[in-house]
Design goal:
Blueprint (H helix, E strand, L loop, with lengths): L2 E6 L5 H11 L3 E7 L11 H21 L2 E7 L11 E4 L7
Parallel strand pairs: 1-2, 1-4, 2-3
Length: 97
């Protein structure tokens, strides 16, 4: 496998997805954090800073554990129009009862 899209949500299951990424041994990983406001990169609030810190931490962890080239963004899938991936993995959101 070479090109992987890893879709993270707002849940606290980052560790599970990081383990799955490491198991797949990708060459290149694109990290997408979904459900984020469009101005996340310029948001200087505590939540904006936390989001950027989380994205940086995810990217560093993936690179450290896989040796893959890692890119990252936050927002929605529309930003990825025209991009192609060999595989996509995503966090499994719990289904409300």
């Amino acid at each position: 496998m070479s090109e992987l899209l890893a879709v993270f949500g707002t849940t606290d299951s980052d560790a599970e997805l990081l383990d799955e990424i490491a198991r797949l041994h990708p060459r290149r990983v694109t990290v997408l954090i979904e459900g984020v406001e469009a101005d996340w990169a310029h948001d200087d609030s505590a939540s904006g800073i936390a989001l950027r810190d989380r994205l940086a931490a995810l990217m560093a962890a993936i690179e450290r554990h896989t040796g893959a080239t890692v890119t990252g963004l936050a927002g929605d899938r529309a930003q990825l129009e025209g991009w192609r991936f060999d595989r996509e993995i995503a966090v499994r959101e719990p289904i409300p009862a």
